[in-house]
Amino acid sequence: MAGGGDALRALLRAANALLQQRRYRAALAVLKGFRNGAVYGAKIRAPHALVMTFLFKSGSLREKLKSIAQATYTHSRNLAYFVFTYKGLMALQSQLQGKKIPFHSFFAACIGGWLVFGENNPINSQIIMYLLSRILFGLSRLAVEKGYVPQPKQDPFPLVAALIWGTVLWLFEYHRQTLQPSLQSSMTYLYDDSNVWHDLSDFLIYNKRTDSK
């Protein structure tokens, strides 16, 4: 047992020494990026899938748990693959050109996005829409910072909020099929299901009655 413990400690010392080697830093950063992508993807998707599945999906407990596990795995895997691809291409471009330039980031992310998130499925669709909203806000702020757009005299956020809510509810009411399925489910629960009840039980306690009364 003592020999096994000594061997393990020696292995850990060797691993820690390897991690301190600057020559391997770029490759190790790619590997840690893969690890962080997998962990972050699981942390983000698991609670979201848990809530959405038990709130809106029907089926047995086994089927629901399987759906949660599959969604979590897919998100975690895709994010890990993307970070690995992005950081690997960034390191390769920097090595080839001898320096890091802004185009490297755009090019590496485009390749990673095409390879990893190019398939049109519910998980990828949610991620892309999440990023799109952040991009629009980011580009708006950048346009002001660079002077392409004058600094607003008043906070434009109330107007943005009004237009976004007005547009999404108009789409929900009259062009529902254009919205993403999980958003349709959420809005159906909020705006359609609240129009239906039979007695106090499905007015205050439950959303819908499960009996045949």
How would you characterize this protein structure?
The chain is 76% helix and 0% strand. With 213 residues, the chain is mainly α. The chain folds into 2 domains: 20-118, no CATH class; 153-204, no CATH class. The mean pLDDT is 91.
**Residue share in helix:** over 70%
How much beta, percentage-wise?
under 5%
The N- and C-terminal alpha carbons lie at a distance of: 69 Å
Provide the residue-averaged pLDDT: 91
Unreliable residue stretches: none
Total strands: the figure is 0
Main sheet: strands, sense, barrel: none
Shape: flat
Q: Could you say how many structural domains there are in total?
A: 2
* Helix-strand makeup class: mainly alpha
Provide the succession of SSEs. Answer: HHHHHHHH
> Oligomerization state of this entry?
single chain
Number of helices: 8
Radius of gyration: 24 Å
List the helices and strands and how they pair.
Elements: H1 2-19, H2 25-56, H3 61-97, H4 102-117, H5 122-145, H6 157-174, H7 181-192, H8 201-205
Helix pairs in contact: 2-3, 3-4
List keywords for this structure.
76% helix; 0% strand; 213 residues; single chain; flat
Brief overview, please?
By secondary structure, this protein is an all-alpha fold. The chain is built from eight helices and no strands.
